[in-house]
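Form 7-S
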Amino acid sequence: MGEMKRYQLRIGDQWCDAADGNVLESINPLNQQAWALIPQATASDVDAAVQAARHAFETEWRSTNGLQRAALMHELANLLESDTERMAQLETTDNGKVIRETRVQMRFAARNYRYFAGWADKLQGESIPLDRPELVDFTTREPRGVAALITSWNSPIAILANKLAPALAAGCTVVIKPSEMASVTTLAFAELCERAGFPPGVINVVTGDGSVGAALTGHPDVDLISFTGGTATGKAISRAAAEHLTPVTLELGGKSANIVFADADLEQAVTGAVAGIFAAAGQTCIAGSRLLVQRDIYDQVVAQVCERARAIRIGDPRDENTEMGPMATQGQHQRVLDFIERARTQGAKLAAGGRVPQGDVYGRGYFVEPTVFSDVAPDSELAQEEVFGPVLAIIPFDTEEQAIAIANGTAYGLVAGLWTQNLARAHRVARQLQVGGVWVNTYRTNAAQAPFGGVKASGSGRERGMHALDEYLEIKNLMIDLSNEARDPFAIRT
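Output:
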């Protein structure tokens, strides 16, 4: 333990241990070995971070002009790009995601900071013509204040960029709370923020278990909350936030449908199905965990998906050739295995995988084979509940209407995939899907400019794209009377 790096909280202009000195071990999912120590913050640490953010907001950051904020954000992007390899290696060690993906995520995060830097000096209001010409009316867009940003363990830096970039562009200060399961890269990223030149208190980081998140989301001096994580935790945060009427943006779970029609390009669709569920070992909210296949091509697609699943290279996520690494945590590993076992007993047909891979390297890590179930009932647990692992449920359908009904037949509504060469069908089906986003003839494709978020149990609000700024801005209306007209004080003026 003495050789492990011990990270510190970032509060105001200080790097510091938790107030009581307590730490948590960060576990490498490849070998179950502790490799870093992170602070277990206290409620007093959270309060200090919030107060530091408040002070920075009131005294400096809210009045910093957009060009200055943009310059700092561009410098942060420069530093992240130049430090991509180190940051990617840290994240791969922390959560087991393959290095070929974490490198891409670091670059995409940098792209987000550049995109929102472009908005920082363009947050203008609008002039509103009224019925009475002597009244001048206009709006301004002003930063909400102190934002609590709570991220998940599966993509810490990419998810943080979705929140932090628009928050900084809008003029908010932040307190970041990463998952205790993967906090190292967020603390390393805070070092880059300091090097970029952000004023003290603009970006603060507190780490630790759920008690830290509870102290942060329940803090009366937090002006908004942005959370990415499980639906149950999102509900708990919403309840806590209601005490102070704190606005909340939620990016929660998903049970996304990937719909393949008989006229689809099958090679393209099968590749999309594999990417949708086995990339990132299925540990992503946008996982296409339900593959809906039209009956005419059902057997063919099942066979091809299973063939591709069996060929996936599982192993050390640091290896350039590895395609799927381990589950991120012991708890998640057991959760996935339990889902697989229950699906077997509930009537789904195991078509591929379903086990812990054999071999010494797999025995030391949290590995699960890429798993495919066919002939899954649309109302079964496997088709309704988020597994958050490499487990695919394949469901047949006959008609377009049936596909839409199955796709919409869950509590979730994050994203969906749609595979067809019929343009009219693509538009028609996409409009009827109850989700925040639809991919047509692609899957798991992101852009900084494109808004992202869900409906129903998948959350509320949007990240990325210009719409994300609205989460961090308040609209203020100003009305000026240019006349000297006397008025009846007891009647509202219209």
